[in-house]
């Protein structure tokens, strides 16, 4: 029994196909558009000085963002040192030790924490670090971003550990290994590539956070005086320069945006390469 | 965690009527493991009903029976592997060399009673590190000792000649049959007194199966073997004694020949002649 497909249906079909095709092209081109746009506007400021020099005092042109690049690195390092161990160990507990209903509760709370707006996390860091110490600091900025890293760290750890087949755990325990030994010598190594890349994606996610840094790390025109002193970071620098009146500073903000985005993309690509080559994917 | 219960009477002969004692099991020193009235529960479901049997030293004992009959559950009771599952409970009396297995240190039990699983489960490590794992977690780390034990275990598992030049390669590079022999070598490295095998050949082709059967035949001099199998020919080829499980009960255990040629119970006869199961 042949059914005649009407012209209208044909038309709707090809129309929708074209529409979704265009949407796909748009999705892909957004990234390249942003990259290109940043590059075009920031290219004039993107020179060796940008990476090696300090910002010039207002009114003068030139200078760079060496302090902010190093600053972002320091804040992110601190954030990783705070967020990853806490999130990782909680994830281990969640995946390997907790009972079903308790795990559900923790997971729920972690998801809520993940949904807390970053500005609120910034206020918390302000309250627990900046206020008692009476000044803005690298430590405060790192704490804020570290707290932001916890929920994803917990969930990635849990997910990748759960993906490790149970017969590996049984195999280790059947040889007389304790549960803790099994987890640290068999389960975690089996998941290590996933865990590493998960943490890197987590880092990339907070690398561009600005709001929580505004009143924790604050910003700095010069090299930071140490972990307990205010420090310049790329996102805050972009924010400050973008709202400044000088055109030269706008250019530098574009350049900083390009550098930041490139760094984040690099971390992303590296993380995906690690996961693609990991032992976990070899096993299946 | 399940805890040992019911230190109940283990008098001279509490063997149930279903259980004919193997002939060699007369002298107690010949018995590696003795089980009396083992009940096992997954939550409310009782998977084992009063299992009583003896595992003679340096012999091969096979458990046969249809799927879900409790033979694997019983096997996993003997190295307390079931304790890793939530909401389970064991009752009864299980002795290893006359010592209450349920009150021993659990890691000690598992070192003395090794296990090989249905699906080979090499760790994502090198071949060498796989075999060395059990030694290392039990505190043996001296390089020469470990290396010697690894070689010896691989030889016992009939794998040495195939892997001796690639000990540092990942275990995942081995074939299925080799991986299972690696798992046997890994279990043998800690010199267990008993080796439990849970359908070790069910995922292997006949040639790989034959290799494993040959090696099991070789190693029964150094360890007591208990094997769960779906393959009745395998039980007949390998085992000195065979136990038949059905619906959580031990129907009969006896000399393998007797079980296959002249079983004492109707159910056993029906099963071994292929009338069901």
How is the secondary structure organized here?
The complex is a heterodimer of chains A (284) and B (277).
Chain A lengths: L6 H36 L5 H5 L13 H32 L2 H16 L2 H16 L4 H25 L3 H8 L5 H29 L3 H4 L19 H9 L4 H31 L1 H5 L1
Helix pairs in contact in A: 1-11, 3-6, 3-8, 4-6, 5-6, 6-8, 7-8, 8-11, 10-11
Chain B lengths: L30 E12 L2 E12 L3 E5 L6 H8 L9 E9 L2 E2 L5 H7 E4 L10 H11 L5 H14 L3 H4 L12 H13 L5 E5 L7 H14 L4 E5 L3 H7 L2 E6 L2 E7 H6 L4 H7 L5
Parallel strand pairs in B: 3-8, 3-9, 6-7, 7-8
Antiparallel strand pairs in B: 1-2, 1-4, 4-5, 9-10
Walk me through the structure.
The complex is a heterodimer of chains A (284) and B (277). Chain A is an all-alpha fold and 284 residues long. Chain A is 76% helix and 0% strand. Chain A has one domain: Orthogonal Bundle (MetI-like fold), CATH 1.10.3720.10. Chain A has twelve helices and no strands. In chain A, α3 runs parallel beside α6 and α3 packs antiparallel against α8 (179-207). Chain B has 277 residues and is α/β, with parallel strands linked by helices. Chain B has one domain (23-272): Rossmann fold, CATH 3.40.50.300. Chain B has ten helices and ten strands. Chain B has helices spanning 71-78, 106-112, 127-137, 143-156, 160-163, 176-188, 206-219, 232-238, 256-261, 266-272, and strands at residues 31-42, 45-56, 60-64, 88-96, 99-100, 113-116, 194-198, 224-228, 241-246, 249-255. In chain B, β1 and β2 form a beta hairpin. In chain B, α3 (127-137) packs across α4 and α3 (127-137) packs parallel to α6 (176-188). Chain B starts with 30 loop residues before the first strand and ends in a 5-residue tail after the last helix. The relative contact order of chain B is 0.18. Classes of the chains: A mainly alpha (284), B alpha/beta (277). Chain A binds chain B through residues 99, 165, 167-178, 181, 185-186, 189-190, 279-280, 282-283, and chain B through 79, 81, 84, 86, 107-108, 110-111, 114-115, 117, 119, 121-125, 133-134, 137-138, 170, 172, 183, 186-187, 190.
């Amino acid at each position: 029994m042949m059914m005649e497909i009407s012209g209208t249906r044909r038309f709707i079909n090809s129309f929708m196909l074209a529409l979704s095709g265009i949407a796909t092209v748009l999705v892909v081109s957004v990234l390249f558009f942003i990259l290109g746009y940043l590059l075009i506007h920031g290219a004039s400021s993107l020179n060796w000085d940008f990476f090696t020099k300090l910002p010039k005092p207002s009114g003068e042109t030139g200078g760079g963002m060496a302090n902010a690049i190093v600053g972002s690195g320091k804040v992110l390092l601190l954030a990783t040192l705070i967020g990853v161990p806490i999130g990782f160990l909680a994830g281990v507990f969640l995946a390997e030790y907790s009972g079903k209903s308790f795990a559900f509760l923790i997971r729920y709370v972690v998801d809520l924490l993940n949904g807390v707006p970053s500005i609120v996390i910034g206020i918390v860091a302000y309250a627990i670090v900046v206020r008692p110490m009476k000044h803005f600091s690298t430590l405060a900025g790192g704490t804020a971003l570290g707290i932001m890293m916890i929920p994803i760290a917990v969930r990635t750890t849990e997910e990748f550990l759960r993906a490790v087949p149970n017969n590996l755990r049984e195999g280790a325990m059947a040889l007389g290994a304790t549960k803790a030994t099994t987890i640290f010598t068999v389960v975690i190594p089996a998941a290590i590539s996933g865990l590493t890349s998960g943490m890197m994606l987590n880092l990339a996610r907070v690398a561009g956070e600005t709001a929580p840094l505004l009143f924790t790390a604050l910003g700095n025109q010069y090299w930071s005086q140490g972990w307990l002193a205010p420090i310049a970071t790329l996102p805050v620098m972009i924010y400050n320069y973008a709202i400044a009146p000088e055109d030269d500073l706008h250019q530098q903000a574009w350049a900083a945006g390009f550098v930041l985005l490139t760094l984040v993309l690099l971390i992303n690509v590296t993380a995906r390469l690690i996961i693609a080559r990991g032992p976990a994917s070899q096993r299946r | 965690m399940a805890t040992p219960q019911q230190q109940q009477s283990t008098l001279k002969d509490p063997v149930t009527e279903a259980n004919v004692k193997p002939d060699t099991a007369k002298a107690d020193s010949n018995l590696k493991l003795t089980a009396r009235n083992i009940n096992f529960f997954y939550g409310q479901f009782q998977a084992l009903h009063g299992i009583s049997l003896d595992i003679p030293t340096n012999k091969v004992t096979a458990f046969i029976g249809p799927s879900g009959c409790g033979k694997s559950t019983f096997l996993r009771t003997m190295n307390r592997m079931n304790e890793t599952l939530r909401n389970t409970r064991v009752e009864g009396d299980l002795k290893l060399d006359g010592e209450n297995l349920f009150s021993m240190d659990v890691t000690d039990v598992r070192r003395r009673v090794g296990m090989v699983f249905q699906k080979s489960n090499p760790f994502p490590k090198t071949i060498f590190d796989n075999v060395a794992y059990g030694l290392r977690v039990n505190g043996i780390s001296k390089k020469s000792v470990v290396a010697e034990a690894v070689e010896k275990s691989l030889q016992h598992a009939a794998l040495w000649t195939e892997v001796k030049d690639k000990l540092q390669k990942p275990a995942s590079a081995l074939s299925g049959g080799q991986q299972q022999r690696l798992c046997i070598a890994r279990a043998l490295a800690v010199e267990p007194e008993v080796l439990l095998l849970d359908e070790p050949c069910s995922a292997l082709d006949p040639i790989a199966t034959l290799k494993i059967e040959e090696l099991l035949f070789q190693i029964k001099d150094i360890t007591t073997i208990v094997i769960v199998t779906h393959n009745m020919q395998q039980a007949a080829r390998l085992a000195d004694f065979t136990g038949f499980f059905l619906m959580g009960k031990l129907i009969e255990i006896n000399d393998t020949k007797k079980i296959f040629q002249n079983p004492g119970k109707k159910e056993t006869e029906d099963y071994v002649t292929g009338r069901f199961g």
